[in-house]
Amino acid sequence: METQSIDYTNPLIQDKHQELINQSEDETDYIKRCYLFVRDEISHSWDIKTEVVSRTASDVLKNKTGICWTKSCLLAALLRANQIPSGISYQLLTRADDTSEGHIIHALNTVYLKDLNKWIRLDARGNKEKVKAHFSIDEECLAYSIRAEFGEIDFHDNHTDLDDRLVRILEKCRNISEITTDFEF
Questions:
Q1: Are 142 and 124 in contact, with CB atoms under 8 Å apart?
Q2: Which of 38, 84, 94, 125 pairs with 131 at a CA distance of 20 to 30 A?
Q3: Rounded distance between C-alpha atoms, residue 44 and residue 22, angstroms
Q4: What burial class does residue 124 get, using C-beta atoms within 10 Å of its C-beta: 0-12 exposed, 13-18 middle, 19+ buried?
Q5: 117 Cβ neighbours under 8 A, 6+ residues apart
Q6: What pLDDT is stored for residue 182 in this prediction?
Q7: Which residues, at least 6 apart from 116, have a Cβ–Cβ distance to it below 8 Å?
């Protein structure tokens, strides 16, 4: 299904889909290529300290940057463009290495592998020091491990679209530094 945030019929998404599908050997290879493209070629906005706010999958592709919320929209869009079911899952994480700065919402993807008849989760946030996510169909290799002692939660959920509250936050922000999640998730 196409949504406001996961706008996979956008010509930019369709062009990138065609480029990636032409390079792929099979569906699993396509999924991996999409994942690696979003993880490695699209910068995480906080990491590069940009003020650009990408609000949709096509914005992320056009701007070459997005936060985890919208990078997950881009990965879902590229997969859905190839009729691969994909959704969004969330984690509640601390902003710091303790609870002193509160919590944030982290988004990652769910992907259905038809050949294996199972859902997996992939995290295309982007790697950096202390953040190492990898493509795996056998075990989760996500960007963040949950630390329950700090109130962190892995929801293990699967949503068809970006949460409406997150969409509204993105719509209100003029620059990336205005993004906050001051609500219960």
A1: no
A2: 84
A3: 26
A4: buried
A5: none
A6: 65
A7: 137
Residue 185 CB-density burial (10 A; 0-12 exposed, 13-18 middle, 19+ buried): middle
98: which residues sit within 8 A by CB, 6+ positions away?
Answer: 150
In angstroms, the CA 137 to CA 60 distance is 25
Scored b (16 or more CB within 10 A) or e, 151-179 reads ebebeeebeebbbeebbebbeeeeebeeb
List the one residue out of 185, 161, 178 whose CA is nearest residue 80.
161
Cβ(57)–Cβ(10) below 8 Å: yes
Delimit the domains of the chain by residue range: 11-178
Provide the token pair at 10. Answer: 């956008």
71-104: pLDDT as tens digits:
999 999 999 999 999 999 999 999 888 999 889 9
* The CATH number, out of the four listed (1.10.1760, 3.50.30, 3.10.620, 1.10.287), of the domain defined by the range 11-178: 3.10.620
Question: Against a cut of 0.90, is the pTM above it?
Answer: yes
| HEC string for 82-147 | CCCCEEEEEEEEECCCCCCCCEEEEEEEEEEECCCCEEEEECCCCCECCECCCCCCCCCCCCCCCC
Average pLDDT over residues 21-34: 98
